[in-house]
Amino acid sequence: MRLGLDIGGTKTDAVAVDAHGTLAGRVRLATGWGPDGVARTVLDAVDALVATGVDRGAITSVGVGMPGQVHPGSTHVLHAVNLGIADFDLAAAVGPRLGVPVGVENDVKAAALGADALRGAAGGTMAYLNLGTGIAAGIVSDGVLWRGAHGTAGEVGHIAVDPRGPACTCGQRGCVEALSGGAAIARRWGRPSPLPVVDMLDAADAGDARAVELRSGLMAGVAAAVRILVLTADVDVVVIGGGLSGLGDRLLGGVAAELEASAAASDFMRSLGLVRRIQLLPSGSPAAALGAALVGSTSAPETRETVKHG
């Protein structure tokens, strides 16, 4: 039994995956703040899964996906600012208490592994494009995460696609994230709302000129990310997840329209069939937690596994 945790800024999603690859348990709980709070969250999540019926003695590993930088092969988390963490060795903090191997991975890379596993035996190369507060991607080829020479493969959020576009927090202009990231849209929209992107889309549907401009940028930025991932890594499919994927057809339809418009004048771009290559991660999918469970297993990085919902 392998456990996987997706530790977010406010909530943690935790799952148990049995020896057959079946999802055997799932819990959600609030995330603690700072190194001590995150360590306590991991321990509490394990206890909560055990309370659902998971046999503690059968647990062989715990994997954790979380924001921040994680050097390959390390359990040190750096710059997880939304969790109050600057430099923290999570495995050293919780491993002795758990008594099993603990693996740690960046949350988007973990989600990429989970999204790929959920595809079953499809194989090939997949890009997971995470649209949330920020934007990043993970690339998985035949079940193995492709990191690149320095671990930045798939970091499409800070590729500038419009030199006259809005300023990005990274210092450039017109980055994919500046156009399509949830935080950037909320900041540029400027109206208080619990769901600023939805509020902006509703206003665009009603004809608000500023909202129409922001909606156009959102769709153009995501379409640019899809083109970049296909043209640079030639992925079979781009699976879109993250908070903005909850927009469903409102997002997918707009992105598809952008891709079709850009391909209208190019036989080459039409030949790539970009619209056919994009998919939305199913709503409520625990991809990041599932991927973390694979990270926690020492053999997971070298094996492909189908994960079934139990």
From TrEMBL:
Any Pfam family the entry gives: ROK
Domain of life, source organism: Bacteria
Secretion signal span: none
Similarity comment text for this entry: Belongs to the ROK (NagC/XylR) family.
PANTHER family: BIFUNCTIONAL UDP-N-ACETYLGLUCOSAMINE 2-EPIMERASE_N-ACETYLMANNOSAMINE KINASE, ROK (REPRESSOR, ORF, KINASE) FAMILY
Protein name: ROK family protein
